[in-house]
Amino acid sequence: MKYSSTLFHDKFHTHSSGKRERCMNIGKSVVFFVLTSLLLTSTFLFYFLNSTNPLFLRHNQGPNIIIQNRSHKQDQEHAAQTTNVSSSKPYKEEKTCDLSKGHWVPSLDGLSSYYTNSSCTTISDSKNCFKQGRKDSDFLNWKWKPDECDLPRFDPRIFLNMVRGKTMAFIGDSVARNHMDSLVCILSSQGETPKVIYKDSEDRYRKWYFPNYDFTLMMIWSRFLIVGEERIVNGSGSSIFDMHLDQIDDDWSKQYPDLDYAVISDGHWFFRMMYLHEAGKLVGCLYCPEQNVTHYNSDYILRMAFRAAFKHINACNKCRKTLTLFRTFAPAHFENGIWNNGGYCNRTSPINEGEVNYGLFDWQLRNVQMEEFERARNIGKKKGQRFEVVDVSRAMLMRPDAHPGEHWGNQWMKGYNDCTHWCMPGPVDMWSELLLAVLRRKEANRIMSS
User: Fold this and answer.
1) Is the dihedral of CA 51, 57, 62, 68 positive or negative?
2) ω into 350 cis (within 30 of 0)
3) pTM value?
4) Topology relative to the membrane, per the entry (predicted)?
5) Do 155 and 69 touch, CB atoms closer than 8 A?
6) Is 414 helix (H, G, I), strand (E, B) or coil?
7) Could you give the residue numbers annotated as active site?
8) Does the structure show a pLDDT above 90 at 224?
């Protein structure tokens, strides 16, 4: 935003009575008023331009997060102003507001959704819950409120200006695709409708292009991040996988050096029978019947997969321009069983934090991921790699009401419920709010440290 001070000059008229002393006193008062106004205005500008990014909180400072819309030119001017002011003093790390800790509050502004299930034409039928017969809509009327600050609504113009000329890829499973589809809907409804420039036959790999911003958005399918080969029995998939803990999935790793932003996530495929291999040798298994093999839990394999992926990124000299954005595990909410034995999710409103069971395996998976993320980020700092986190786990643990459930329209799996993916529109749209907040914070840090 461009800031400037304006001085208001009053015209004083004197009588021709020759009372010069009164005129001089008035003149002195005007000069004093003008000088005082200039001093106050300069002080305000200096404070405002030197204030922290709205997503930061100083010690003993209350919540302050005012985001205003700016054009691309104004954004550049503001960045230049901030850089000029900040570069004259050493950068100091501020106390950061934790966007992942908070609660869901009613949305009273009538802006709970960025789009509708009909206004966004790219929603897949399996996530279009209203199209598939869902009647209740209260799950749309909530917004995420961090404890120490406010989370701004997603501004497509700010996002698209920030990623102008760049490439962003979502890397992971179908929940990663769920996130990317949500982002496309938000951008299409308020920003620019992109062009599909690539789609594979199974619609697992997709590439969008926003011509007005020269921005490319991709989905790169990767169930495990590492190599996981499904065993084929009688010509069909067996849901049994040979996992190679020391081999990275080429589908994403070969494209990674060409990315500016990579949003990595995974987790929901790590609950199948698996045989673990390292250096060509069998080192363990998950859910296997053999007794002479070391048995592991899903969290161990998930840990090894993320450790291998992050290790690859940190060792990649060509990847140093890529900002790695790790999105934490998004929990499922099956009740009274799992997906194939009667489990369902038919709630219609969020639960509060006091009702959340942090002993659940979902939260354990999130913590395992975070441990590997922190480990990788500490190593990456020494190598020039950049890591950030988009932590959605705590917020989504409180949203058992936002899954398709029985409203996912799968004619081949009638009677089963989808309590893993997320209805669109819905709280999955908040993930993009967090994503943009993290990107803006990263940009503010870059400017202040330059």
Assistant:
1) positive
2) no
3) 0.79
4) Single-pass membrane protein
5) yes
6) coil
7) 174, 418, 421
8) yes
